[in-house]
Amino acid sequence: MKVLVCGAGQVGSNIARQLAGEGNDVTVIDQSQELVRKISDSFDARGIVGHASHPDVLKRAGAEECDMMIAVTYADEVNMVACQVAHTLFNVPMKIARVRSQAYLDPRWGNLFGRDNMPIDVRISPEIEVARTVKRALDVPGAFDMIPFADDRVRLIGVHISEDSPTINTPLRQLTELFPDLHCVVTGIFRNERLIVPDDDDQMLPGDDVYFIVRTDHLSRAMPLFGHEENQARRIVIVGGGNIGLFLARQIEEEQPAVKLKVIERDARRAEYIAEQLKRAVVLHGSALETDILQEASVHSAEAIVALTNDDQVNLIASLMAKKMGAQTAVTLINNQAYDSLTASIGIDVAVNPRATTVSGILQHVRRGRIRQVYSVRDGGAEVIDAEALETSPLVGVPLREAELPEDTIIGAIVRGDEVLLPRGGTVIQAHDRVILFALRGAIREIEKMFSVRLEFF
Predict the structure, then answer these.
(1) Superfamily name with CATH number, domain 235-352
(2) Predicted TM-score of the model (pTM)
(3) Is pLDDT of 174 > 70?
(4) Buried-most residue among 49, 221, 357, 417 (CB within 10 A)?
């Protein structure tokens, strides 16, 4: 597949790295010669220096032969015009654009993005995606990651393992034997900066980050096995009333009317605006780095502090101050990749990375085959894939113990109609089942092939 990536920032470079590593023909356009050179030197991708929406630059990048364009520059307008030019002049079949400004995404202008107007096939809004990620983390206290699959009948959960976990140092085989009716499969373990797909003899150790796939209605039974029985937050303080904070606050007001919500916003005019937009939340004007403001927000009794400003250092310090004052959980927005490895060790419970959420949103539309949903784990170290099995798939009609799954792949759940099946060695996948898999990066291409439409299907 020939892919043209416009923008060599964190998102663009991560997407390019993943796709190039899977054998795709990737070209990256950016105005920064330094960023383009860095990409060309780091992995197998072609770099073009130039303006991503200029026709001559797109032609030089090979847009005429391109299967897909992914426009993720820092400017919404450049992303949108690049897609327009790619459609009109080069007939690029698939165009994905990152659009940050909510002004473009207002439902009143819904017909803006159509093939006869602005021909963008997929729009990714990082702010909305981040707000939804934070909301999911609040919905499952104790989890640093939660993604629903198959209409929320199945969930991927990420949890930290501590000394208090009752199942540490226990082979995973024994957990299956002890809880045979629990629909829960441990699919990934991150330990010592390495992500693995465990086998039956592996154990969970204190300090591990563990990913498991669970039937949604079994989640409350599963969490205590990993040492987590936290109560859902009923008192929440949001730091930062920007687009992400406002979108999250609206979600909480609509979906959880019993939650007592407070928002801290430094800018006076913005504070007045969000106070008008929200129905029940208390909006406080001031800096979250001031103890008096945190006391006024009653962070000492808050179950969750959610720091969502544009400044990583403000988010980190405000979160730590709030936890020291008594807040139980800190959910913190972190843009700088350099901070990723520090957050857990300094007391941040959930670190939300806008880059990772945007990459996951894009990959869902990049994957070939009957792929319903994709979620990227650990900066693309693994993916959780929800795929439909067709009659021609090699997985169909044979017991799982005989199926030739790619190495470093594990099936976490099978969804058949309204039924969720726990995968066992004797389980037989049927045509049109939805299969939820966890696979390390090196296995992704083989997974795509297993769920692709073949000629014999017709």
Answers:
(1) NAD(P)-binding Rossmann-like Domain (3.40.50.720)
(2) 0.84
(3) yes
(4) 357
